[in-house]
Amino acid sequence: MEGNIMTYEEKLQQYKDWIFRRSAYQMALAIIGIDKQTVAPSAGAAYRDERSAYLAGELFSIETDPAMVQLLKELKDDPQIDGDNKRAIELYYKQAMDTMCIPKEEFVAYQKLRDESFDAWIKAKSQSDYSIFEPYLKKIIEVSKKMYRYRNSDKNLYDQMLDDYEPGMTQEKYDVFFTALKERLVPLIQKVTKAKQKNEAFLHQEFPIEDQKKFMIQLLAYLHFDSSWGYQNESEHPFTSWTCENDCRTTTKYVTNDVVSAVLSTVHEVGHAYYEHNVDPKYDGMILSEGISSGMHESQSRLCENYLARTTAFWKYHYPKLQKAFPTQLGNVSIEEFYEAINVAKPSFVRTEADELTYPLHILVRYEIEKGLFNGIISTEGLNETWNKMYKEYLGVDVPNDKVGILQDVHWSDGSFGYFPTYALGTAFAAQYMHAMRKDLDVDTLLSNNQYDVIMNWLKEHIHKYGFRYEAPELMKMVSGEEFNVNYYLDYLEEKYTKLYNL
Amino acid sequence: MEGNIMTYEEKLQQYKDWIFRRSAYQMALAIIGIDKQTVAPSAGAAYRDERSAYLAGELFSIETDPAMVQLLKELKDDPQIDGDNKRAIELYYKQAMDTMCIPKEEFVAYQKLRDESFDAWIKAKSQSDYSIFEPYLKKIIEVSKKMYRYRNSDKNLYDQMLDDYEPGMTQEKYDVFFTALKERLVPLIQKVTKAKQKNEAFLHQEFPIEDQKKFMIQLLAYLHFDSSWGYQNESEHPFTSWTCENDCRTTTKYVTNDVVSAVLSTVHEVGHAYYEHNVDPKYDGMILSEGISSGMHESQSRLCENYLARTTAFWKYHYPKLQKAFPTQLGNVSIEEFYEAINVAKPSFVRTEADELTYPLHILVRYEIEKGLFNGIISTEGLNETWNKMYKEYLGVDVPNDKVGILQDVHWSDGSFGYFPTYALGTAFAAQYMHAMRKDLDVDTLLSNNQYDVIMNWLKEHIHKYGFRYEAPELMKMVSGEEFNVNYYLDYLEEKYTKLYNL
Where on this chain does Zn(2+) bind (chains A, B) (predicted)? Predict the structure, then answer.
């Protein structure tokens, strides 16, 4: 840029101003998104969607401003730049390169399509009718492909998507991962299925939502998720969103005939919230807080959900309170029976309500469908039937309708392809993190003693505070002292279920 | 603009694109504002406030874009422009002229100050400590004055503020209005105070909020305020906000020892919501829907609250349901006793809980304080004591603390000076509208028969659908066939309270 030679300090200032502008639009879009998914009146959706797409376009213009991209390019190679900013600028630069190749009007139209597709999914799910959603799914897949093709990369489209959610991951690597899972889990599941079945019917009595909400108040207090930095709402599909470290929102969904669904989804989402809350505040508004990979994020939410909230130690504290909230329903159920019931492994058709053992198979179905969709092997037409067939094959269950079948998850409605596999990967990460944590902390005693904050603090110091400063493999070495090893996860499952079912 | 001569159609298209851009930022700011006042975690306020101030600045830049202001100037005098757009463009042009004189950085700083001042007010109110809020109030008054001075108008500052909320109104006109009120209401209040007092203690028993919420569900159904176009949340100070005709949000506040507070505030806010909902959709996103004057808006909310919800006819439908919700508290209270109790006229210190008769005096206190503040007669220091003194003088009550004294209202915290008088004016408008409505409809029968929608439809056809197409005086003539006459209001109050108290 001739005639416009800036000093390093001027460049840094321009870069910081740019981050601020970017974060203002991101904040607006985050709040509009939370609003949309929680309380916004449905008839106003079209009006709002059109305008939030416009604002997303404004953000797009900021993110891909050629002068800024040039500045990022210069800054990332400047010897004066510190490590934090170097990492951030590399991420910003990559993001800009991936985005700026897309014509703005197509980007805006895609944002609008995502919103419309979400609205169609809500409608389709409420009517349990895949045909309402199918045209949107077809369109959003077509447009997603087009967006990725603009990058003009040699890499396979779906590999690019996988890499966006978890840097470094590919179909090849996920295939290896899922093969390892199948090898040890399928025989284990078969053994469990043949073993003596546990009683879990009492979990599915009528639990009035009002009473569940009262129990929730004390659960949120236990989690230290308070109104100074967080807020829990309700939505069709639980999620977490945030604007900064001190503004993390979660949602849950109450199910009348399932007393643990809202509890586990709450612990899961608050796990996500803690990650953002605990990122070093110096990264506020920066890609180092907002860009954390999905696998890493899911590792924290699923660590909380599975490795903390599905333990006897956790329920030692909570179960007496739950019994008090539901004396008729649970008064005669012992904590041992309750613990066994919430850990029953039984193939089912709803992912978010699945047990730990069969859960990865739910992910496998989605991963294989996504692979098929983006490699041109599967089409959206009749995909509900394909879905049901795969559930029969992998989990041995008959999906009764689209609502609990292909329409159960929000992800495809907003174009989040490549996200699902990170749930399984993150769960596997979490096992290795837990192994490391247990060397430092007596986790069970802390859980029973209402000291959840001590556990969260360990996660903060070892994982959360870094935000996206490091990628998963590097962080894994820092935390556990070794490379990611799927066997921590498989050993954990084998040990837990062998014991639980006396195999 | 040489070398850039546009056709009329091109100008019109530019104007429409500009309205769209404008409406996108307005929508974002409305949703961020609703979020802030209802659920947003407090510790994130500073982060959010800074960014919403930036977005308000972006809106400012759009609104005051010199090329657009020039275009508006040309369009408003173009003979081809239709009546709707002519009116809208005149309003846009006036707004731009009033705003563009302010330096953008000062405007942005002012938006931030408003948010910070709101946060301080929340804190001050919760601690009942005016001294926490005083520095912000002082600052926001100073800055407001500065903003208005930029307009370089000959008119008195406070007159300009009054005109912004209700076009055409001035201190002179309000003085005449309030004098008329005082002349007839002060003796009436004296007579009522001397008359035999009604029992209303039963309204102030303990009414668990949970049970109030259950009653609320059926009230909202009666009002036809459903989730397709509206949503009710809770907030410290009830308000209504909207993004378009099909997205109108209200809040209410539940008070444990007041069974009608949330009911009346709900009917009030939903009255505002109906106004926006019923504006002709062709005005969506335009100043003709969003710019409706405060007096006109308050006329509709207070029409619903006072002239509909404080009647026997309304409670004929609702009271049996309220009794069912609170059998212990209200089982032995007849509907006649209940009606009398909710209409008891008794000087008190909280405006939003005041009766119809003494309500205008609460407004008078605020009006006189605002006049004093902006004419340099009163200062913010010790204003809580000034407040308390005036309450003693006008209403004869001793204000026990700042929380229910000077800190009770949100308005001054966000710089809404000149708004309060429109509450009284709007209430007076409403009396004249009701007089017109009663010629066409049997309002009482409709209220008792669960036909609230018929009444709302009359308001839609006669008032709401026009949005801000006409100013209050013109609309008043269209609806009632005559000029605004304060005596409709005073006659109504005199008749109602003479009967109620057997004067």
Answer: 268, 272, 298
